[in-house]
Write a structure and sequence with these properties.
48% helix; single chain
Length: 277
Amino acid sequence: MFFVNLNLRAVHQNPDVLEEFLQRGVNPELGLDPVLMDMADLDWHRSMAARFADSGLTPAVHLPFFDLQPGSADSLIRAASLERLGRAMDVARVYRPAHMVGHARYDPLLYMKSYGPWRDRAAQTWASALSRWPGHPPLYLENTFEPDPASVAGMVEKLREDQSGMVGLCLDVGHWHSFSLGHRLKNLDQWLDVFAPLLSHLHLHDNDGSFDQHRGLGQGDIPWEEFFEGLAGRGLAPSVTFEPHTPEAFQAAMDFVRERPGWFEPLGVAAPPGERP
C-alpha cells in the first residue's frame, strides 16, 4: 500500500479533480490547509470520506502548516498554532486516516541559539494537539527547510517521550535535495543515519535542486540509487507517499516504480493496474 497527495482545496473548488484521482485507484494523502478548513464544514468532509470508503481507498491526512510555528517563543503565536492543529485533528478524525503528516517547522534563523527551548515547546504543542484525539493514528513529522536532520529528529524524540510509538519521522527527499541543499552538500547518508532510528514514512518526489518542484521520480537529479541502497543497507522499510503535482509527474513516478521493482517491493509499493506498461 502507498499514498499519493491529493489537495482537498483543489477538490472543493473543482469536483472533477476528485473524479480524476479516484480513477487512479490509489490511496490519497489528503492535503488539509487552513484556507480549505475555513471554507468547508464537517459535513463536506464526511461526504468526501464516504467517497473514499465507497471506492475502497484508505486515506491519510497531511495536516495544515501555513504560518504555523508550534515551537514559537511568542505564546500568542503558539496558541494560534495549537488552535489550528486542534481543529485539524477534528477534521482528520472524520477520514479515519492510516496516518497523519505534519511539519516540524524549526527555523534556525530564529532559534539557532535556543534550540532546546524551541524543541520542548514544539513537542508540548504537538502533544496538546494530539490529546484532542485519543487513540489517534501515527503522526509523522517531516523535514522542510531545516538545514540538518538532528533538529527534526531531536524534536520527534522529545515528543515520543509523551506519545511513544505513535510518532515518527517522515523523510521528504525532495525537501532534503532542494531546501536543505542536499544537491550541493551530498549528505544523504548523514540524513539517513540520523533519521533511521525513527524513520516511519517517506515523501517521494523529484527536483533539480533549484526548488521544490514536485516532479515525478526520475524527472530530476535526486540520487535515487544511492537513496534506495541506503534504505536497504540500513534495513529500513518505511511507508510511502508520492507527491507529484501534475498528471505527467504522477505517470513518471508510476513508470519509475514499474521499472525498478527491486527498490519498491521491499516497501510494499507496486504501480496500480491499468497504467500503461
